[in-house]
Amino acid sequence: GQNIDQPTEMTATEGAIVQINCTYQTSGFNGLFWYQQHAGEAPTFLSYNVLDGLEEKGRFSSFLSRSKGYSYLLLKELQMKDSASYLCAVRANAGNMLTFGGGTRLMVKP
Amino acid sequence: DVKVTQSSRYLVKRTGEKVFLECVQDMDHENMFWYRQDPGLGLRLIYFSYDVKMKEKGDIPEGYSVSREKKERFSLILESASTNQTSMYLCASSSTIEQYFGPGTRLTVT
Q: Which of A36, A50, A62, A64 has the fewest beta carbons closer than 10 A?
């Protein structure tokens, strides 16, 4: 089975940096995904890590350590529109199935 | 542009009714998925399909069935709706890496 943990809620200030952590335990590993979901909308893909290290994409970066079963999503220069839930998901070896964590609801305040 | 559509945004059904949720993708993807999303529990996989007429159970298949007669269409069926199936239902499709989600159907069973 798989177990994925991430904080339930976080609050940060506009213009600041926030790091959302995700820890996982899986029987196999074939990639870690981050999705963004605004209230009432569909999740949208943010990033994918399969090798250790940092992947940077504009204001968003994602880090993976496979040996520690750990990832984080880093959001820089926070904007009000970044207020959303951030979902961590792991793909095991078999096929394209993803297992999602419970999601982290981020509130950005002025 | 990538598109996954779901037949209804909101649906209200009575206990015991048979319910059909339809999902269509226009990206010629092999893989399609049905999830339900509940507060505090995150996204949980109900069923997925990796080809026409092929299906695999996810984490919570009880009380559900699926049908995939054409590559672009994946249907979720609630054989006899119950109140504990009140939830947000999300469909997704993928080719190799990321999953693309539909807008979701909020189903209420009374």
A: A50
| Distance in angstroms (rounded) separating the CA atoms of residues A44 and B6 | 16
Nearest to A74 by CA among A97, A100, A53: A53
First to last CA, chain B: 37
Interatomic CA distance for residues B31 and B92, integer angstroms = 8
User: What is the CA B97 to chain-centroid distance, rounded?
Assistant: 19
A99 touches chain B (CB under 8 A): yes
Residues of chain B with Cβ-Cβ distance to A8 below 8 Å are: 40
Give yes or no for A43 touching B (CB within 8 A).
Answer: yes
pLDDT exceeds cutoff 80 at A39? yes
- Band of residue A94 on the pLDDT scale cut at 50, 70, 90: low
pLDDT for A28 equals 83
List of chain A residues whose C-beta atoms are within 8 Å of the C-beta of residue B58: 97
The token pair at B106 is 């909020």
Q: How far apart are CA A71 and CA B90, in angstroms?
A: 25
